[in-house]
From TrEMBL:
Protein name in the entry: Olfactory receptor
Localisation: Cell membrane; Membrane
Taxonomic superkingdom: Eukaryota
Function of the molecule: Putative odorant or sperm cell receptor.
Highest classification ranks of the organism: Eukaryota, Metazoa, Chordata, Craniata, Vertebrata
A cellular-component GO term for this protein: plasma membrane
Transmembrane segment boundaries: 24-45, 57-80, 100-118, 138-156, 198-221, 233-255, 267-285
Species annotation: Enhydra lutris kenyoni
Length: 307
């Protein structure tokens, strides 16, 4: 617990110690972060303002974009600022807050991806019952349950982190505070804590569930018309791409013993910063409805400004 600590702050070593590379880190991740926030905010505004994007699929996409923006915000600003700072210190409280945020918005994205898979399953495999099953009240309840599940997971992780005593050293070989690098600094045997670590189980179990779900969905498409298969495949492939890109790095980080690998930081960056940046492109470039809604929004905005 905190009162057992002699460490009041940590030093994040970041991605590199080289001054020139630090400047490159600043430029690259500043562009990534601005692009992430702008892209996901565009999707959020488009879905909220468009009457044609009122289906459950876009309702869940709204919350996926929100989770993406928040997950990136929980790590990217600190990485950007630290890349130009001489002292890359983070207080104990700030560190614990970052652990909470990462393990809240990360699982939130996991749960939303599961809800999107359920939505596609019902739409494709049970089309006649889709309006009844996926009505607005049900979707709202599912999202609330996703928020509650993410909050419970985050509380469990932060409780483990708060129980860790730190008596030095305080150097975190990472660009952010996460439970895995903190375990290496704890002045105690963390074996039992490792057994209680649930992130890896959630990542692995969710990934298996999603892959089985999309396998069933793709198999059921054989009974659809050519046009129906084309449209369903376009949507499902986008979802599958996001699932694979998000879960493979997540499983690599959390579903293995807490031993350090040289690529840990880059893999972590990929799913906390890279995936939130890519998701808007994946969902808009392959989705005609979203692109049309964005064009209408742009037309309305430019028309109102010209007046």
């Amino acid at each position: 617990m905190k009162q057992n600590n002699t460490v009041t702050e940590f030093i994040l070593l970041g991605l590199t110690q080289d001054p020139m590379k630090k400047k490159m880190v600043f430029v690259i991740f500043f562009i990534f972060y601005v692009g992430t926030v702008a892209g996901n905010l565009l999707i959020i505004v488009t879905i909220k303002s468009s009457r044609t994007l009122g289906s459950p699929m876009y309702f869940f996409l709204f919350y996926l974009s929100l989770a993406d923006s928040c997950l990136s915000t929980s790590t990217a600003p600190r990485l950007i600022v630290d890349s130009l700072s001489a002292q890359r210190t983070i207080s104990y409280n700030e560190c614990m807050t970052q652990v909470f945020a990462i393990h809240f918005f990360g699982p939130m994205e996991v749960f939303v991806l599961i809800l999107m898979a359920i939505d596609r399953y019902v739409a494709i495999c049970k089309p006649l019952h889709y309006p009844t099953i996926m009505r607005q009240q049900v979707c709202t309840i599912l999202i609330i349950l996703a928020w509650i599940g993410a909050f419970i997971h985050s509380i469990a992780e932060i409780t483990l982190a708060l129980k860790l005593p730190f008596c030095g050293p305080n150097l975190i070989d990472h660009y952010c505070c996460d439970l895995q690098p903190l375990l290496k600094l704890a002045c105690m045997d963390t074996y039992m804590i490792n057994l209680e670590w649930v992130s890896g189980s959630i990542c692995t179990g969710s990934f298996v569930f999603l892959m089985i779900s999309y396998t069933v969905i793709l198999h059921s498409l054989r009974n659809h018309s050519a046009e129906g298969r084309r449209k369903a495949l376009s949507t499902c492939i986008s979802h599958i791409i996001v699932v694979v890109l998000f879960f493979v790095p997540c499983i690599f980080i959390y579903a293995r013993p807490p031993s350090a690998f040289p690529m840990d930081k880059m893999v972590s960056i990929f799913y906390t910063i890279g995936i939130p940046f890519l998701n808007p492109f994946i969902y808009t470039l392959r989705n005609a409805e979203v692109k049309n809604a964005m064009r209408k929004l742009w037309h309305i905005t430019t028309t109102s400004e010209s007046k």
